[in-house]
Design a protein that fits this description.
Layout (H helix, E strand, L loop, with lengths): L2 H6 L5 H17 L6 H13 L4 E5 L5 H9 L5 E6 L2 H13 L7 E5 L2 H4 L8 E6 L6 H11 E10 L15 H15 L3 E6 L5 E6 L2
Parallel strand pairs: 1-2, 1-4, 2-3, 4-5
Antiparallel strand pairs: 5-7, 6-7
Helix pairs in contact: 2-5, 3-4
GO molecular function: O-methyltransferase activity; S-adenosylmethionine-dependent methyltransferase activity
Organism: Streptomyces sioyaensis
InterPro entries: Cation-dep_OMT, SAM-dependent_MTases_sf, SAM_O-MeTrfase
């Protein structure tokens, strides 16, 4: 196990660890990839560093990333999480409850992210975590810039694409889109970016004041 993955493990309480294990099992059964322990630890840290009270998540899955985000957020913080699959959100809701979070700590919105995000408040979020359709990542970036307060964070999961992002071989359209995302974030004058080598790559950027 890599150092980052080992360091991310065992830093939350037993009920949350059990809930994470249950969520990972449900994800495996459904054929969904989840964030790694190292990525989860990074998300907790970033949510805590931002003193996050409002977080938007694109891609609820079965709740693994949400548990990590909620652990880093303020005790009165609310996670707004969007997913196309309501049954996955039902698993996440169970997992959040098992991890000890009150029902009012999370707002579940089923639907397409590009339909839901425009309805969320301008400048109303401290952190936006993107783990949705890779082909929509540039649109997620544009919406995130609108949603974030100055000093807020946007994070994109899976930007290494199992090493294909830097592979010179012919790549599928979603990898080409990730390369566009990386370039757009790097060249943006509105963002201060960093690429964290945890999991399959976590691209983070702070919105300038």
């Amino acid at each position: 196990m890599a150092f980052a993955e080992a360091y991310g493990a065992g830093t939350i309480d037993d009920s949350a660890e059990a809930a994470l294990s249950w969520s990972r099992d449900r994800a495996q059964e459904a054929g969904i990839r989840t964030v790694t322990s190292g990525t989860g630890a990074a998300l907790r840290l970033l949510a805590a560093a931002a003193d996050a009270k409002a977080v938007a998540e694109i891609g609820t899955g079965t709740g693994v990333s949400g548990i990590h985000l909620l652990h880093g957020m303020r005790p009165d913080g609310v996670l707004t999480t969007v997913d196309l699959e309501p049954e996955r959100q039902a698993f996440a809701k169970q997992a959040f409850r098992a991890a000890g979070f009150a029902g009012n700590r999370a707002r579940f919105i089923p639907g397409s992210a590009l339909d839901v995000l425009p309805r969320l408040a301008d400048g109303g979020y401290d952190l936006v975590f993107c783990d949705g359709d890779l082909m929509e990542c540039l649109e997620y970036l544009a919406e995130s810039l609108r949603l974030l307060r100055p000093g807020g964070l946007v994070c994109f999961e899976g930007v290494f694409a199992d090493g294909r992002t830097v592979d010179s071989a012919v790549q599928p359209a979603e990898v080409l889109r990730l390369r566009e995302l990386l370039r757009a974030v790097r060249e943006s004058t509105a963002l201060v970016p960093a690429l964290l080598p945890v999991g399959d790559g976590l691209l983070c950027a702070v919105k300038r004041s």
